[in-house]
Write a structure and sequence with these properties.
single chain
Length: about 150
Amino acid sequence: MLAGLLLLGVPALAQTPEPRTPPAELRAQPDKDDDTIVLTLPDEGRALWQRAGQLLARRGYPIRYASPELLTLTTEAIVPREANTMGLVLAVQGHELRLQAYTPNGSTTFPTVWFLMSNQSKGSGRDGHKWQELEEVARLLGGTRQYTRSINY
């Protein structure tokens, strides 16, 4: 019986490769759903990762998780300056640093809400200040700034 099912080519038994998502487009100006600033910098790898972590610590962000092997870093969520509660996540690959912001929402199902940067770029009040804080961190790190989204909406 099993041999018969195999000969019929039952789709449930077939291994199909997962479709690959093409890399997200980088833009000089943010699009409405972008959630990531991509910086291209002269320093690279661990030196860039350390410099970025030191900058975040000087700005008052407690480091929640740091991996020198993966060159990733996550901060605790704080209330920086006039912004609402937010935390930062960064990842380094070569000369490229990807920077994102998140807001904890208190839910146990989805405890983190990724901050869509350009939705708030022209806003005032607390959300507008989140955007300004993320842009300021990117400015202080230097380099060429581009924008993208980490997932397709």
